[in-house]
């Protein structure tokens, strides 16, 4: 679980590109269909410009991309660190960087969303190591960590409820590839879900049969304390988890209260 992350690890490789001769009317339709607000302009495999929604807002209307695109484009090397890419984007005030290889060919694009995703994913290993050390000290054993896909139907939940508002947020993240891996303990042939109940419920609702996970393998069959608590609460399968829709998840509640404070301060 290395903390060294490179642009190529998080960039989007399937990039929608346009050419200088693409009609601007087609770009607007492309923005509507794709949900993206900017595209690299490519000629002969090389990036020659960028066209974004700002070009349409700030520049006089013209029929072709070549007349409004920005040709002063900052690009990133695919072997650049994700932290350096983030610094460049922050300093330049831009939200995306086309990524090139050593032959200057476009190989991907890295956006501020990808930067956020990398931050989320890299914070998870700290939690995994915490659980690993806790289990080893608690049971006086040595464990092994694996990154793998776990069938959602084999997961043993340890939490009896999830919040509908947080579930909505996790669904949004999963659809965009932003969700971090769950944390699972393998004891005997059981996969005990330690962290990631909202993600797992959301994944099942999306029809996902597997979920990306960090698995702490105990290499023996031990009955965990969290399993015993789940037994007492009658939680054995994912179907036993209740979805709470008349209360807010603590994270959402905090953001709501901050907005309310701002409204009160502004007299609204």
Q: What would you say this structure looks like, in words?
A:
With 268 residues, this protein is of the alpha/beta class. It has nine helices and twelve strands. The strands form four sheets. The protein has a five-stranded mixed beta sheet with strand order 6-11-9-10-7. The longest helix has 28 residues. The radius of gyration is 23 Å and the shape is elongated.
Chain-wise SSE layout:
Elements (H helix, E strand, L loop, with lengths): L6 H4 L13 H11 L3 E6 L2 E7 H6 L17 E2 L4 H11 L3 E5 L5 E6 H28 L4 E8 L3 E2 L4 E3 H12 L6 E6 L2 E6 L1 H9 L4 E8 L7 H8 L9 E3 L5 H16 L3
Parallel strand pairs: 3-4, 7-10, 8-12, 9-11
Antiparallel strand pairs: 1-2, 4-5, 6-11, 9-10
Helix pairs in contact: 6-7
Short characterization:
By secondary structure, this protein is of the alpha/beta class.
Major β-sheet strand ordering: 6-11-9-10-7
Uncertain regions: pLDDT < 50 for 5+ in a row? none
Strand content: 15-25%
Question: Helix content range of the residues, please?
Answer: 25-40%
Biggest sheet character? 5 strands, mixed
Overall 3D geometry? Answer: elongated
Helix/strand order, N-terminal first? HHEEHEHEEHEEEHEEHEHEH
Mean pLDDT: 87
Q: Give the N-terminus to C-terminus distance in angstroms.
A: 48 Å
What is the tally of beta strands? 12
Structural class: alpha/beta
SS element count, helices: 9
Radius of gyration using CA atoms only:
23 Å
């Amino acid at each position: 679980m290395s903390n060294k992350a490179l642009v190529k690890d998080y960039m989007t490789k399937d990039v929608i590109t346009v050419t200088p001769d693409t009609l601007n009317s087609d770009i607007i339709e492309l923005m509507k269909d794709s949900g993206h607000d900017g595209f690299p302009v490519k000629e002969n495999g090389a990036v020659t410009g960028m066209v974004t929604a700002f070009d349409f807002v700030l520049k006089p209307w013209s029929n072709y991309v070549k007349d409004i695109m920005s040709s002063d484009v900052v690009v990133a090397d695919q072997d650049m660190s994700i932290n350096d890419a983030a610094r460049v984007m922050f300093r330049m005030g831009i939200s995306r960087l086309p990524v090139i290889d050593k032959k200057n060919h476009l190989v991907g694009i890295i956006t501020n969303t990808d930067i956020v995703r990398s931050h989320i994913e890299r914070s998870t290993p700290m939690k995994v190591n915490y659980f690993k050390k806790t289990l080893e000290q608690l049971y006086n054993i040595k464990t092994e960590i694996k990154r793998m896909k776990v069938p959602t139907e084999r997961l043993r939940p340890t939490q009896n409820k999830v919040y509908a508002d947080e579930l909505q947020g996790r669904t949004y993240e999963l659809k965009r590839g932003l969700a971090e891996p769950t944390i699972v303990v393998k004891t005997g042939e059981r996969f005990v879900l330690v962290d990631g109940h909202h993600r797992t419920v959301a994944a099942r609702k999306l029809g996902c049969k597997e979920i990306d996970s960090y698995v702490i393998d105990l290499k023996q069959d031990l009955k965990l304390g969290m399993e015993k608590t789940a037994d007492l609460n009658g939680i054995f399968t994912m179907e036993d988890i209740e979805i709470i829709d008349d209360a807010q998840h603590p994270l959402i509640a905090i953001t709501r209260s901050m907005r309310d404070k701002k409204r009160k301060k502004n007299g609204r």
